[in-house]
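Friendly challenge for the regulars: who can give me the structure tokens for this chain first? No prize, just bragging rights.
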Amino acid sequence: MKKKFLLSIAILSVIGAMKCNAQGLETTVVQDLTEEHVFSQGIEGPAVDKAGNLYVVSFGKDGTIGIIKPGQKPELFIELPKGSTGNGIRFNKAGEMFVADYTGHNVLKINMKTKAVSVFAHEEKMTQPNDIAMSPSGILFASDPKWKDQTGQLWRIDKKGTVTLLEGNMGTTNGVEVSPDGKKLYVNESIQRNVWVYDLDKKGNISNKKLLYKFEDGGMDGMRCDKVGNLYIARYGKGEVAVLSPSGALIHTVKLKGKNPTNVTFGGPDRKTIYVTLQERGAVEYFRNSSAGRE
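First reply, four minutes later:
Bragging rights claimed.
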């Protein structure tokens, strides 16, 4: 009975902005936030700061980060140092920005007041990194796919920038996220279509790896959790965002305009707006959700 109750709560938390179609079925309203091709096909990120500004990489070209202020059009926020290309973005509680720099094998840190860019962590054994997630205590986790070999790794970066390999010999690790209570770490493998969950302790150690869900087709990219623990996954090639409950039930999918979503994040004044970056469109789409994001 308890499992059924929790699943019901999880389902209710993702029934956001809906309308009825001609058949009387409910569908989520997806809209464009930006025009097409404002960003390159390297569009990723995305992340929202405390002021509600949305940051997305590859504004106009790779190696940049764009900013979309509430109600305004995208503009350039910063150009990254030569040789650096941004991918996933996260903010810590102090408001500092961390960026996965996949060509430099770095995690960069950006001072939001001065726009000074520094190398927070560097590891030559990383193929990328690709996406990053942050625990409530400020520990970072990075996915590290090697696409040509269809393999990947998973790394931890502590608050001093020390890099530790958590697991090698995985599939193509891509999306990575931490549960709201900081006790679970989620990692997906794009080509293998697996979503894994680990137990996570306060020091950032992982254990008890389990398969949370396996998709039968399509790919996967970035992921984010809402405040009740549901996992929102960008389904690359499928043109949708899939929502999994903490127990691994597929409870909702949102059909997007574009086919290749690369990542998702929560924003808006109530943190209930979900922004999605679309590769082939070079644009950001959004839809409303009834549950706020965890961050």
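The chain has one helix and 26 strands. Residues 183 and 200 are 5 Å apart (CA to CA). Your move, everyone else.
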